[in-house]
Amino acid sequence: MKSAVILGSGRVGSAMVMDLSTYGGFEVTAVDWHAAALSRVAERCGARTVEADLADPGVVAKVVADHDVVLGALPSALGMQTLRAVLEAGKPYVDISRMEEDARELTGLAEDKGVIAVVDCGVAPGVANMMAGYAATQLDPCERIIIYGGGLPVERLWPYEFKAAFTPYDIIDEYVRPARMVEYGELVVREALSEPELVDFPAVGTLEAFNTDGLRTLLTSLSVPFMHEKTLRYPGHAQLIRALRETGMFSKAKIDVEGVEVSPLDMTAALLFPKWTYEEGEPDLIVLRVVAHGQRGGKPVTLRWHLHDVYDAATDTRSMSRTAAFPAAIMARTIVEGRFPLGPGVYAPEDPAPQPGFLDEMLDELERRGVHCVCTVLETK
Amino acid sequence: MKSAVILGSGRVGSAMVMDLSTYGGFEVTAVDWHAAALSRVAERCGARTVEADLADPGVVAKVVADHDVVLGALPSALGMQTLRAVLEAGKPYVDISRMEEDARELTGLAEDKGVIAVVDCGVAPGVANMMAGYAATQLDPCERIIIYGGGLPVERLWPYEFKAAFTPYDIIDEYVRPARMVEYGELVVREALSEPELVDFPAVGTLEAFNTDGLRTLLTSLSVPFMHEKTLRYPGHAQLIRALRETGMFSKAKIDVEGVEVSPLDMTAALLFPKWTYEEGEPDLIVLRVVAHGQRGGKPVTLRWHLHDVYDAATDTRSMSRTAAFPAAIMARTIVEGRFPLGPGVYAPEDPAPQPGFLDEMLDELERRGVHCVCTVLETK
User: Fold this and answer.
1) What span, in angstroms and rounded, lies between the C-alpha atoms of A274 and B246?
2) Which residues contact A298 (CB under 8 A, 6 or more apart)?
3) pLDDT digits (tens, 9 = 90+) for B196-243
4) Taking CB atoms and an 8 Å limit, are A271 and B246 in contact across chains?
5) Whether pLDDT at A380 is above 80
6) Which of A203, B166, B265, B352 sits a CA distance of 20 to 30 A from B299?
7) Is B210 helix (H, G, I), strand (E, B) or coil?
8) Chain B hits for A246, Cβ within 8 Å
9) What integer is the mean pLDDT of B103-107?
10) Residues of B in contact with A158 (CB under 8 A)
11) How do A142-153 and A226-233 pair as beta strands?
12) What's residue B167's pLDDT?
């Protein structure tokens, strides 16, 4: 039996613990500084728990020492330092922290230590990258890739029709940070929330897609001349958010308000974020659509993946947590069982995806866990 | 030659000065605490000016002492105390301050002093009340009166498509204060911004009308079983304002924001109000529509007034100022010339409106000043 340690026991970390415990073969240890989170995973999954402050890389080095594989579900600000600590400890690592830095800079360290690390290994980034990486080699040439992704509450409450499954400050950041994309082979930057379009999704209905800065590693790892990433929300959300942004409600710089200095973003957060908080047991859903256009044998081909998942009432696990945790857990298993198709290094999910059967296995494993994905091939004969 | 004194030389007060100076018969004195405002009216209209603090009723009593008629264009908070001071000084008074209090409580004082005062004497409240008062007696019975009114910028800038021609705090107050209306003869209260409807206006296009608390004196002075007042904005404004209101952005109560106590409304004001400020020389427009349904000789009749005005480039006077100032100036002239049809007292504009020719004269005088109004009578023969 192998031994896995999960860093962070929040919503995603605890879903990783659940998954590795459920599908066997692992002795699972959960680490967090928050005792309540730990007792929850201990009770639910029978996992071993360790209370520790993972903001300290020295602590990370210690808690990973006796394990065969490490999974990371920590805040993005801790992503890079934790990756380094795990690699220095010589342990394979799968991470979903969405760190700001480019993790691939540590690939030399991973090679030195002879270990494999995969970052951004959730759904988007994550499974979406695998689909993109697969399409980029399957099509010749692959001309265009568009990734649509979004996590939404099932119950649509006016005016935002939105709840935040992860820290809402990060969501506001996605609404403010300029979106990088690729057009005609060049990096292009557009305003976040720009180029809204309505897209229909089975069982969900019409959603609105708009530019966000979500391509991350794909911007440099694939040489596809057109690549876009768009976030999905219920129609109207983006318009309202743009109005708030335009009014200055997301500005971080403090302004004088009747004699006191306040950041408008902090005020907005104080008013808005309580309204964006999921109720206990409130269902959410995830939609991911990846569309790749190109040619095969000189004929136009479109590959289209449609992944859809919903809240799991049986385990009280939100779809956003399921779809972030399961790909990481599946990847960890692949690495531990020696089936990862590449040698030591730090990888994005698109890197192994072109290898035969790799994406299929990921999608099969997700299907076993109730995360459904349909791939459609549109071909001109 | 008669002598008129205008209290307040802001946008409306200075338009009153301009009007009384232009149409002859008056020696005009402008009073304000703000020297720059006074020198502007002196230069433009050749009016005499007095610098004085009109927040002090004793000062008001002094400055009105030597004049035949007084016009008030002061902030609403000063409305009632100024009315009292003017009445105690025994001077006729026309006011557009939109005071919160019911001015008619001072009618006894006006009777004692033998003077006439008319309050709410702008466009809406003001001319709209005259139309309502006229309809209430012309139709038998008058079954329903709806007042639509709004002041808007000509240039529609996303996202608000709105600028504030008077203090924006008062506009937010209109968006927050519950709207009182009359249905089946009973007072009914609904949320401000409720019951939005799209209405088409010639030369302006489609506007959105929603409930606001604008019936004021009409709620008690007319016994019409259905009375509604709705504010007009470009479509979409109300939805956005509702979202801000729902998010708590208009809340006055201070909340803790990262350790400091701030009123969300003050923060919103700091961000929003600069965007709601008219540029120098920026054109605005006014739309007023009053619709009255009822019967005449047992046949259904609808009376409909449509008043439309725009910014006057020649005098750099906004429509909002013109349409507030001109009715007051016309009314002052009527009083001074002894043509006001009722005896001493404090009146709302609907009170004299049923008298023969009274409304026609007001509309004719407005027409002379370029404020156009069309009255349509729809009759079943």
Assistant:
1) 12
2) none
3) 999 999 999 999 999 999 999 999 999 999 999 999 999 999 999 999
4) no
5) no
6) B352
7) strand
8) 158-159
9) 98
10) 246
11) parallel
12) 84
Q: A249: distance to nearest CA of chain B, Å?
A: 7
Mean of the per-residue pLDDT values of chain A: 96
Whether A270 sits inside 8 A of B247 (CB atoms) is no
CA of B259, closest CA in chain A: separation in Å? 10
Query: pLDDT tens, B143-153?
Result: 999 999 999 99
pLDDT digits (tens, 9 = 90+) for A66-120: 999 999 999 999 999 999 999 999 999 999 999 999 999 999 999 999 999 999 9
Exposed, middle or buried by CB within 10 Å (0-12, 13-18, 19+), for B192? buried
Burial of residue B81, with CB atoms counted within 10 A of its CB: 0-12 exposed, 13-18 middle, 19 or more buried:
middle
Tell me A351's DSSP state.
T
* Residue (of B273, B271, B251, B275) closest to B261 by Cα position: B251
What letter does residue B373 receive in the DSSP assignment? E
Q: Judging by DSSP bridges, how do beta strands A116-118 and A93-95 pair with one another?
A: parallel
Beta partners for B197? B209
Q: What is the pLDDT of residues A296-312, one digit of tens each?
A: 999 999 999 999 999 99
Name residues whose C-beta falls within 8 Å of residue A287's C-beta, 6 or more positions apart in sequence: A148, A149, A150, A152, A201, A204, A207, A232, A306, A307, A308
By C-alpha distance, the chain A residue nearest B265 is A257
Closest CA to A121 of A323, A299, A339, A355: A323
Q: CA-CA distance, A209 to B261, in Å (whole number)?
A: 37
Average pLDDT, integer, range A184-202 = 97
Q: How many angstroms separate the CA of residue A137 from the nearest CA in chain B? A: 44
CB contact under 8 A, A271 and B159: no
The one-letter amino acid at B257: V
**Rounded Cα–Cα distance for residues A59 and A81 (Å):** 12
Nearest by CB: A271 against B158, B242, B248: B248
> Following CA atoms B257, B259, B263, B265 in sequence, which dihedral angle do they give, to the nearest 10 degrees?
-30
Q: Would you say A369 and A19 are in contact if contact means Cβ atoms under 8 Å apart?
A: yes
When CB atoms are compared, the residue of A158, A159, A267 closest to B267 is A267
Cβ-Cβ contacts under 8 Å for B36 (sequence gap 6 or more): none
Do residues A99 and A79 lie in contact, with contact meaning Cβ atoms separated by under 8 Å?
A: yes
Instruction: Please give the pLDDT value at position B337.
Output: 95
Q: What tokens does B176 get?
A: 């927050």
Chain B residues whose C-beta sits inside 8 Å of any chain A C-beta: 158-160, 239-240, 242-243, 246-249, 255-258, 260-264, 266-267, 270-272, 275
User: Residue A365's closest CA among A314, A330, A324?
Assistant: A330
Q: How many residues does chain A have?
A: 381
Please tell me the distance from the alpha carbon of residue B184 to that of residue A245, in angstroms, as a whole number.
44
Interstrand relation of A26-32 and A48-51 (parallel, antiparallel or unpaired): parallel
